[in-house]
Write a structure and sequence with these properties.
Layout lengths: L1 E4 L25 H15 L4 H5 L6 H6 L9 E2 H4 L3 H6 L6 H10 E5 L3 E3 L4 E2 L15 H5 L7 H4 L3 E4 L15 E11 L2 E4 L2 H16 L7 H8 L4 E7 L2 E9 L2
Parallel strand pairs: 1-3, 1-6, 6-7, 7-10
Antiparallel strand pairs: 2-5, 3-4, 7-8, 9-10
Length: 250
């Protein structure tokens, strides 16, 4: 099993902790690219136009200022730094010891700055998205040649994919079974895709998969576990499936 998650836009600022140590992070083939992106993000964050270049508003200008010295900021485990709806639902900090160990080994959190990280990797708060034009190009273009480095980890695995479109450039190999997680609201037979609650369900389903007594190995196994959150539908075949959570609105 491998669980692919997006980062969250909202991030907590660790109040204490060690500074960023790129050499200690998981996925060593990503280290050189991480180092370049960190250096460029620090430089861009020093510019008067930094908020415009990074596509953020004035309310987070203090975060941009802080990352002028990104390598000196205190770090915490990624699962604590990412604070969005998905991570609130997954609630990694309250996982059982066995599930936490499983998460550290089997969850990948995709990131514009770091490529992909384990929940246990120590990171600072940062502001960067895949489409930002840094001096060396966008993170999306620079990670593209490196995604294949993840293929071996997914070989023969069930890949539970809770990523948003911006972070879904890596495609699991055909030797894996990918199950994307979506959600819709059904109102008198009319269905509408929902986004906010979809993040919530992706977090819940990730947690259920991690806490399962026997981790899901097939799409059907995952659908069985996911049924605990409500009505779910599994569509697809072969190596590609979609698991849809169906909310009813009367």
């Amino acid at each position: 099993m491998l669980i692919a998650l997006p980062p969250s836009q909202g991030k907590a600022a660790p109040q204490s902790g060690p500074p960023l140590d790129l050499d200690s992070m998981s996925i060593p083939p990503f280290t050189a690219q991480r180092r370049e992106l960190v250096r460029e993000l620090e430089e861009v964050s020093k510019l008067p136009s930094a908020t415009d270049l990074l596509g953020v508003g004035a309310r987070v200008e203090h975060e941009v200022h802080a990352q002028r010295n990104l390598t000196a900021l205190p770090c915490a485990p990624a699962h604590d730094v990412y604070t969005g709806v998905l991570y609130q639902a997954a609630d990694f900090s309250t996982l059982s010891d066995a599930a936490r160990a499983r998460a550290d080994d089997q969850v990948l959190i995709f990131s514009a700055l770091f490529g992909a990280v384990s929940p246990r990797d120590l990171i600072p708060r940062y502001r960067l998205t895949m489409g930002v034009k840094l001096p060396g190009g966008t993170p999306a273009s620079r990670w593209r040649p490196l995604w294949r480095r993840l293929d071996e980890r997914a070989d023969g695995q069930l890949v539970i994919d809770g990523r948003s479109a911006d972070y879904a450039a890596w495609k699991p190999p055909v030797t894996a079974v990918r199950v994307a997680i979506n959600a819709v609201r059904d109102t008198n037979g009319q269905r509408k895709v929902i986004t906010h609650n979809a993040k919530h369900y992706r977090g819940l389903i990730a947690r259920l998969a991690l806490e399962a007594e026997t981790p899901p190995r097939t799409a059907d196994d995952l659908a069985h576990e996911a049924g605990r959150v409500g009505t779910v539908e599994l569509t697809g075949s072969g190596s590609s499936f979609v698991l849809t959570v169906v909310e009813s609105s009367l």
